[in-house]
């Protein structure tokens, strides 16, 4: 047998590993995501101003059409204060659109979840709906807007249906995939322990679907909102989409951009104030990447086994 | 104490040329305060037998009855991977398999968590625990319903040797205290000898080849000479039946 010689003191038996030294605080600050996030808006504004100047110089153009960041800002402040020449103020306008969005979203989630569950659990139901769902996915929102406007005119039905039809295929597909992805080993565990069906649905199936339901909700809201704005724009008499067209018809680009910014702000508020807190609460069981690994309890298990002791210097020695 | 009667149990998977016989006409009677290990090469039907006994799978033919004083007995199951509900706390995982959530039930669950040294972890989620701790929760869950018979499918195979050794000792102490019938599947003959007073040897194709009593005193240590002799005797059975030893 070949003995492995112990290294002689002072000799190098390989490449020494240098500990990583943290970068200077200034470098860390410059590389930090917080700084990047903070710099984005100023970068956009600078880009905007430069673009305006380039366009004015490059084309023979009425420069009063282009809106500056300050004009858009002033417009948005005025709208927030209720000072507007549009038929309805910002709050009334968004209230109308959000009501339509809420109703359409609720219908797409309820109906979509039911169909998705059916398609995931039954091959026959899946075969029945499959092609129609794929067709709905491919249908552009503009087509729904024109189609529903012609049929239902200017009342709420068309916009609500536009939200529903735009969002429902995403809900169906996500829920179906969620059912197919349910952890069968947990159902086997439930069978082994004779757990009643209602309990299995409540504690195994539904929680396993939550990630897919959340994804569905985000898609349905995002796609539904776009569909809503388009139908209001083409076939409405009120709402956020119609109001954007109002400012477009008035050749007021700051109004078009300003209202679009309100859409963005609304989406950010919805995400950060509603969806994200709910998601954090529902998925609080997910281990955090930053959580320290629980290893101390394993050490105490060794103590309990009575074969290893853990001296103060934390080196394990046999008893 | 539970009685398990297995009569002409046969299980096949697939059809025609793809048919695989997982269990071949197994006849067995198990019961009492026994710790039975089932050993054999990979694919010999050990886990399939346990799945049929626990109701997860149904046999192709034959019958299985598990009774306690004539009534249908309630089994507990410890899986190879703990199979905990990741979105429920440790205590909620134990409560999930209970018939009710009364204070008495909660106290019983807490008792079994303390038996596996996790009494203060009831509020944690499985994702916050190590693999060994999760498996301890699985063991506590199985014991907490105070089953008449406990099925364990290679429960320590995914763990490191140190943790597995610790858990084997804890399991033995719990068995000695609760006096259950335990049916334990393992591919580790040494583990089977350390824990069991009866070892069933299965061959490829799901044939029960031998039923070996192990009459050594507890507690047993794999370093003991008597345990080593018993292990060698079981391994000779593997050679005798031309099984692949592990």
Provide a descriptive summary of the structure in words:
The complex is a heterodimer of chains A (about 325) and B (about 250). Chain A has about 325 residues and is mainly α. Chain A has a domain at about 70-175 and about 215-260. Chain A is about 70% helix and about 0% strand. Chain A has a two-stranded antiparallel ribbon with strand order 1-2. In chain A, helix 6 (about 140-150) packs across helix 9 (about 195-235). Chain A is flat and about 80 Å long. The mean pLDDT of chain B is about 85. In chain B, helix 6 crosses helix 7. Chain B is of the alpha/beta class. In chain B, strands 6-7-8-3-9-10 form a six-stranded mixed beta sheet, sandwiched between helices. The interface of A and B includes residues 185, 199 and 287 of A.
SSE blueprint:
The complex is a heterodimer of chains A (319) and B (246).
Chain A: H1 25-31, H2 33-58, H3 69-80, H4 90-121, H5 123-138, H6 141-152, H7 157-180, H8 184-192, H9 197-235, H10 240-249, H11 253-282, H12 296-305, E1 308-309, E2 317-318
Antiparallel strand pairs in A: 1-2
Chain B: E1 2-13, E2 20-31, E3 35-39, H1 46-54, E4 61-68, E5 71-72, E6 75-78, H2 90-96, H3 103-115, H4 131-144, E7 149-153, H5 161-178, E8 181-185, H6 189-195, E9 198-203, E10 207-213, H7 225-240
Parallel strand pairs in B: 3-8, 3-9, 6-7, 7-8
Antiparallel strand pairs in B: 1-2, 1-4, 4-5, 9-10
Helix pairs in contact in B: 2-4, 3-4, 6-7
């Amino acid at each position: 047998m070949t003995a492995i010689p112990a290294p002689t003191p002072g000799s190098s038996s390989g490449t020494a590993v240098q500990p990583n030294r943290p970068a200077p605080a200034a470098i860390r600050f410059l590389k930090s995501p917080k700084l990047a996030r903070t710099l984005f808006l100023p970068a956009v504004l600078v880009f905007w101003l430069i673009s305006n100047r380039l366009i004015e110089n490059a084309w023979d153009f009425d420069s009063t059409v282009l809106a500056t960041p300050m004009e858009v800002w002033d417009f948005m402040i005025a709208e927030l204060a209720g000072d507007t020449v549009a038929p309805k103020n910002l709050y009334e306008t968004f209230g109308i659109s959000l009501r339509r969005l809420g109703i359409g979203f609720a219908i797409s989630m309820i109906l979509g979840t039911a169909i998705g569950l059916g398609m995931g659990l039954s091959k026959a139901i899946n075969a029945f709906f499959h092609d129609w769902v794929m067709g709905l996915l491919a249908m552009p929102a503009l087509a729904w807007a024109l189609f529903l406007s012609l049929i239902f005119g200017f009342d709420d039905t068309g916009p609500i249906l536009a939200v529903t039809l735009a969002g429902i295929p995403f809900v169906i597909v996500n829920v179906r995939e969620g059912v197919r992805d349910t952890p069968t080993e947990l159902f086997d565990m439930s069978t082994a322990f004779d757990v009643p069906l209602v309990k299995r649905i409540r504690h195994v199936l539904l929680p396993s679907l939550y990630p897919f339901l959340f994804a569905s909700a985000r898609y349905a809201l995002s796609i539904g909102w776009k569909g809503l704005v388009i139908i209001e724009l083409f076939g409405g008499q009120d709402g956020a989409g119609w109001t954007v067209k109002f400012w477009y018809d008035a050749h007021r680009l700051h109004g078009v951009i300003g209202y679009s910014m309100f859409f963005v702000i609304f989406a950010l508020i919805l995400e950060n104030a509603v969806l994200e807190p709910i998601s954090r609460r529902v998925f609080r069981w997910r281990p955090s990447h930053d959580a320290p690994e629980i290893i101390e309890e394993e050490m105490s298990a060794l103590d309990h086994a009575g074969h290893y002791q853990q001296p103060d210097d934390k080196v394990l020695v046999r008893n | 104490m539970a009685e398990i009667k297995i009569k002409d149990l046969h299980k096949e998977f697939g059809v025609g040329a793809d048919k695989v016989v997982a269990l071949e006409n197994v006849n067995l009677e198990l019961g009492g305060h026994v710790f039975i290990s089932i050993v054999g090469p990979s694919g010999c039907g050990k886990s399939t037998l346990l799945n049929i006994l626990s109701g997860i799978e149904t046999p192709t033919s034959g019958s299985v009855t598990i009774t306690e004083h004539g009534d249908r007995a309630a089994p507990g199951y410890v899986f190879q991977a703990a199979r905990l509900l990741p979105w429920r706390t440790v205590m909620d995982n134990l409560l999930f398999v209970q018939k009710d959530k009364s204070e008495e039930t909660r106290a019983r669950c807490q008792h079994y968590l303390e038996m596996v040294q996790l009494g203060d972890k009831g509020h944690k989620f499985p994702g916050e625990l190590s693999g060994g701790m999760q498996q301890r929760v699985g063991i506590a869950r199985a014991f907490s319903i105070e089953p008449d018979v406990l099925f364990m499918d290679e429960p320590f195979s995914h763990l490191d040797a140190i943790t597995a050794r610790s858990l084997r000792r804890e399991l033995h102490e719990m068995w000695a205290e609760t006096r259950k019938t335990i049916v334990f599947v393992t591919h580790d003959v040494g583990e089977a000898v350390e824990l069991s007073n009866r070892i069933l040897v299965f061959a490829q194709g799901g044939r029960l080849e031998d039923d070996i009593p192990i009459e050594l005193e507890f507690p047993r240590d794999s370093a003991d000479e008597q345990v080593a002799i018993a292990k060698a005797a079981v391994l000779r059975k593997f050679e005798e039946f031309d099984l692949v030893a592990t």
